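Section 5.1 Outputs to date
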Amino acid sequence: MNEVKIMPCLDMKNGRVVKGIHFTDLKDAGDPVENASFYQKEGADELAMLDIAATLENRKTRIEWVKNVSSVIEIPLTVGGGISLLEDIGLLLSAGADKVSMNSAAVKRPGLVSEAAKEFGSERITVAVDARRNQAMPSGFELVVSGGTRPVGKDAVEWAKQCEGLGASIILPTSMDGDGTQAGYDIEFTQAISHAVTVPVVASGGAGKLEDFVDAVLQGGASILLAASVFHYRLLSIRQVKEYLRNRGIKVIF
């Protein structure tokens, strides 16, 4: 097993870090630059910054947010939200992002994933797969877009496999059912994705206690562990999580 990485996530709205439950009921969680700097010092391996309102507000990710955050960290930064053109990706990478995460635009036009992988390198392309439970789907999970507001009638696991084939180097599945609840990652969904693809899978949505991180690796098959609420509200430290993982025989980077 390769080293497992810890990735705090800055969900952004109106220039502030926010956190909600099931993608709604957003609360302020601090300044993005202060949070980014803090997480790097704490030992984060990577950082995600998602402009959660960009697609809903029909606009691009705020470039200045990316510049401000990237200027205070050296760890890899993945940026998502409102990416619909190759030009958007180029601007974000120029502003300091190391990778980009696509979601709604990729669903709308899958060719964007393959074009981006060809233009900028597969290693820079993450596809976020948001889903909710729906037994009418073969896997039991239906793909949703536009910040979780719109189901698209497509099987989420099949879509993840398609994205790997198109050139995505990381799949970031988030279960709407678990988001922000601190009730644990949706292991069933994470596992369904990790069994279906060979690229690294990010566990996302619902981390609340130390055991959740272990479950995401040993049961869910995730190799990157994304969390927001537990880190923003200082319920757990990154060091605590890494020590707990190491004590359970999981390789981490200190």
